[in-house]
Amino acid sequence: MASLWLAKLKLPVLLMVIQITFFALFGLFVDYDSEARPRQYGLSESNNNSAVFQDVHVMIFVGFGFLMMFLRRYGFSSMGLNLLLAAITIQWSTLVGGFLHHGGDKFTVSIVSMVTSDFAAATVLISFGALLGKTSPLQLLVMALIEVIVYAVNEYIGIVLLQVSDIGGSMFIHAFGAYFGLSVARVLYSPEVEKSTKEESVYHSDMFALVGTIFLWMFWPSFNSALAMEDAQHRAVLNTYFALVACCVVTFATSSLVNKNGKFDMVHIQNATLAGGVAIGTSADMIIMPYGALIIGSVAGFLSVIGYKYVTVSLAIYQ
Amino acid sequence: MASLWLAKLKLPVLLMVIQITFFALFGLFVDYDSEARPRQYGLSESNNNSAVFQDVHVMIFVGFGFLMMFLRRYGFSSMGLNLLLAAITIQWSTLVGGFLHHGGDKFTVSIVSMVTSDFAAATVLISFGALLGKTSPLQLLVMALIEVIVYAVNEYIGIVLLQVSDIGGSMFIHAFGAYFGLSVARVLYSPEVEKSTKEESVYHSDMFALVGTIFLWMFWPSFNSALAMEDAQHRAVLNTYFALVACCVVTFATSSLVNKNGKFDMVHIQNATLAGGVAIGTSADMIIMPYGALIIGSVAGFLSVIGYKYVTVSLAIYQ
Amino acid sequence: MASLWLAKLKLPVLLMVIQITFFALFGLFVDYDSEARPRQYGLSESNNNSAVFQDVHVMIFVGFGFLMMFLRRYGFSSMGLNLLLAAITIQWSTLVGGFLHHGGDKFTVSIVSMVTSDFAAATVLISFGALLGKTSPLQLLVMALIEVIVYAVNEYIGIVLLQVSDIGGSMFIHAFGAYFGLSVARVLYSPEVEKSTKEESVYHSDMFALVGTIFLWMFWPSFNSALAMEDAQHRAVLNTYFALVACCVVTFATSSLVNKNGKFDMVHIQNATLAGGVAIGTSADMIIMPYGALIIGSVAGFLSVIGYKYVTVSLAIYQ
């Protein structure tokens, strides 16, 4: 009985300890950025970031929140867990990112740092998607705390030391989050366990997942352009917009082609329509020209449907 | 067997051919606008357009997407088709509009052209609404390709040649889209076919349609002001806002008046609350004064409910 | 028969009379603000407000609209009533606020006045939440008309005369709206009536309420910063963001702690996650430092769950 009572306390007590630690670390290290301090004028540029930040925020909480509802049994709680994981990740990544970039000195927060923390939340939520229905909230929490550190170090090495360009975070957010989640899944589960999980989808939850997809899809131009400046920001919006519409057309076409009745498969639509946003992410701010964006988006949509159709199936055979 | 196989290929192959044609035409004709090219400064004004563009984008994909779910049988797929039609229309109207306005020369894309392409998508989706549950995806696709051309020519004649003012596209988007859709419906169907269609609405899909209505309703100030400048943009936001709230009050009042139990009819709410946004569209940027906006919105709401109640019923009688 | 017919007419006729009165009062008193009049330049700052206004608008119509759906029987109609009440309140509070601040002279409307009117709508909708399922549309309408006057006078005394600071309206919007609604409930109902009401929640409507919560939660930084300027606006965004994420973590922790199985209670998540936004509202634009925002949000989340768990239950016992 006593041990059961202790088990039940583990998660809330850990959450409380984490939050109190955050108080202390924020108190010691975090200050407002100059644009959020008195006597600063002519800040119209950063004002715009506020609108872009809100767009990214919608992707994190509505986009991912709904997308996670594709498993029926977890529909409701997955949206709540999505909120909890993001809320912890946002605070933790503000701290970890600050420590890494300022070597233990005090550092500041701004609308740009809010966008960056939301990006870290996106990374954790992508990993969460790979683990949905297979892990307890406690395991997810531990994963999030570790993943944020690995993510920040990986991004620091890539962006700061190697000077890799990845404006929309295709590598450092999407690919990293997906592989991290898959690795955790591999460590935690044997194939037998995996088969017994409640991974079933129904009409209703499929519809919610589609809503999530559409919110992610719509606001992707803001996501890919949020950290770009001036003309590069305009290019990032334009390139992402065109990559996504082309990706969408090719996803529908390929989905119909590989279906034996020529029907569109909603699972393809939910996933592959977003591939264009990921694919264009790395180069969204570059001068790749509108037709280049169309081609990148199209190839991504095509490969995503083909990959989903044939690779997943063949993996299932070999399991 | 072979012909069935061919039939199934028709749609995806057509989609692929269209997308590849788009690659070529974009490669030959489309470049970035100056504000998306390097070494441009002081672009704070167009940054704002980026937020307005995202609002319009939400109307196209969430607003229309949900609104189309009012037919139960098509709930799910209508949201997907909405996405596909918009994705094709956006690319095609970028090209058609560019050809028309630049006589075959190269032309540029910018955030303004993205808004314009989204407007063309709105036009096609309004026509789609009139055909929902009566047409195949292939028919809708062909309709979209033709409609974009007619739309662009119509708009070119109206705005460029005749210098008609229609900032929110009441005539060139809403009225045009509706009549085009109804005309296509008339051409494609005999009354008998029409009766047998699956046009049934249920509680659940009605709720989704209401969500679509509310997303359209909320962001309409951005829609009507997206292409206006400076003080005209402010007026367009204010006038649309006031027209919509007044329209809303009168729609509820009229809906209750014409109902034999004094109840509100959700079908009226879903449709007539938006009439104010359409009605104010043409003159949204003009100095019509706040009370003028209230009156325009109110008359629109009243006529829309009355029209829906009595004209639709009488049409049904004569069929 | 005749009296029944008259009863049915009461609501729509009242709505019509109200709307026509609004025409007259707007015609006599309301003009555009200078930034919405011709020949005004360099208005990039107020352009940003347009994006913030749209965020607040989403909170009013989607956030509150969905949140009100927590009662199953009222799911559908509550979203409609939410729309109607907000549409009336927006117009009425434009007038009442204008009269109060300009002593009967003509006054102007601008994007700032639109935000202020949306805030008044939030107040009325919070009161509506306390009355849901217990009142007729007519009663709600009368309440809204009266509440707007009391709200405006209360705010005028507080902000203008006493110079109280309440940038996010914690006192003048949230607390006022809640207590006004509870007072009306107390006046209108005896305990027996209250017990017989249809206040039941089900899985499905709980999910919609969670969606409402998330829309309110996401856009709260825009809400609390909408009327702040320059660096204060940045601080309001940052402080609200941090208060909300910390509030979220502590809400989940406390909800698990007070649950006998250690589970999260969705009713807590739906309500207490928002407490951080309310708590930080009064001081959101002040230099309270990021760790201060975290602590304020956390305490609010903790007290909200504890209050809901123990105070509500004990109230139920004493009833």
Automatic annotation (TrEMBL), chains A, B, C:
Keywords assigned by UniProt? Answer: Membrane, Transmembrane, Transmembrane helix
Q: Which Gene Ontology MF annotations are present?
A: ammonium channel activity
Q: How does it sit in the membrane?
A: Multi-pass membrane protein
- Annotated Ammonium transporter AmtB-like domain ranges read 45-315
Annotated compartments: Membrane
Instruction: One GO cellular component term, please give it.
Output: plasma membrane
According to its UniProt entry, the protein's GO biological process terms are:
ammonium homeostasis
Where are the bilayer-spanning segments?
12-30, 50-71, 83-101, 107-133, 140-165, 201-220, 240-259, 295-318
Concerning Pfam families, the annotation shows: Ammonium_transp (PF00909)
Which protein family is it in? Answer: Belongs to the ammonium transporter (TC 2.A.49) family. Rh subfamily.
What this protein is called in its record is: Ammonium transporter AmtB-like domain-containing protein
Give the source species: Candidula unifasciata
